[in-house]
């Protein structure tokens, strides 16, 4: 009995040590990103404590030293940069501690012939592949073409994949997937990306369908939509449309059955 008790105690003592090592490793490897929220404390300098969020520019602001760029730095690297600035003009020996209160959300967009088109949150740990993202979007509809899935990277690069052979396609934050429809189902258009209700817009029984009407039926643009460059993919070819001219009534853009409308995120 005593030997079993001793083994159990040793096991319990090892658990927090391993957990601490894992946490330290993640903290060391993680690089700060836009929208991360940081908390700073300085030993014996309570008035310098603050919480701040990393903006699009990558800068944060701290008491006395002002703005400093931390985007892409590890937490330890950011701590060192802040310490140097405080010791330069204000403190003799600054003991700075930075912690990440909350991490920025990462996402991919899945549109086209899926059951629940929209934004899929990227996991905080691990990765997300093409098949996993489509599964989270409810899977393919009956009209979906499993051999024609368009992947648009945040960088702008596009490629086409099949569902069966996509196991090794790892997605990244900001990627957009569009499941194309089969050739027998071309009486609609797909609106994906930064609209409030991405999905399929059916052509009216009579008359045509233009880009302004399709965007309106998709719930309008999201808060971060890029209205200047709206992409309409037609027969595999992209057409870049400045929606602002359409909205002002100066121009019109008629859609065709099978068009795919992609609204990207604004860079500003």
3D architecture notes:
The protein is of the alpha+beta class. The protein folds into three domains: 30-102, wza like domain (wza like fold, 2-Layer Sandwich), CATH 3.30.1950; 105-184, Outer membrane lipoprotein wza fold like (Roll), CATH 3.10.560.10; 186-268, Outer membrane lipoprotein wza fold like, CATH 3.10.560.10. Helices cover 23% and strands 33% of the residues. The protein has helices at residues 2-29, 75-89, 130-136, 211-217, 243-247, and strands spanning 37-42, 50-53, 59-62, 66-69, 96-102, 107-112, 118-121, 128-129, 144-152, 158-161, 170-171, 176-181, 188-193, 199-202, 225-234, 237-241, 260-265. Strands 7-6-12-9-10 form a five-stranded mixed beta sheet, covered by helices on one side.
Please tell me how large the radius of gyration is. 25 Å
CATH topology descriptor of the largest domain: Outer membrane lipoprotein wza fold like
| Number of DSSP strand runs | 17
The unreliable regions are 4-27
* Strands side by side in the biggest sheet: 7-6-12-9-10
Indicate the structural class: alpha+beta
Quick tags:
17 strands, 5 helices, 268 residues, Outer membrane lipoprotein wza fold like, wza like fold, 3 domains, alpha+beta, 23% helix, five-stranded mixed beta sheet
Blueprint of the fold:
Layout: H1 2-29, E1 37-42, E2 50-53, E3 59-62, E4 66-69, H2 75-89, E5 96-102, E6 107-112, E7 118-121, E8 128-129, H3 130-136, E9 144-152, E10 158-161, E11 170-171, E12 176-181, E13 188-193, E14 199-202, H4 211-217, E15 225-234, E16 237-241, H5 243-247, E17 260-265
Parallel strand pairs: 6-12, 13-17
Antiparallel strand pairs: 1-2, 1-5, 3-4, 6-7, 8-11, 9-10, 9-12, 13-14, 15-16, 15-17
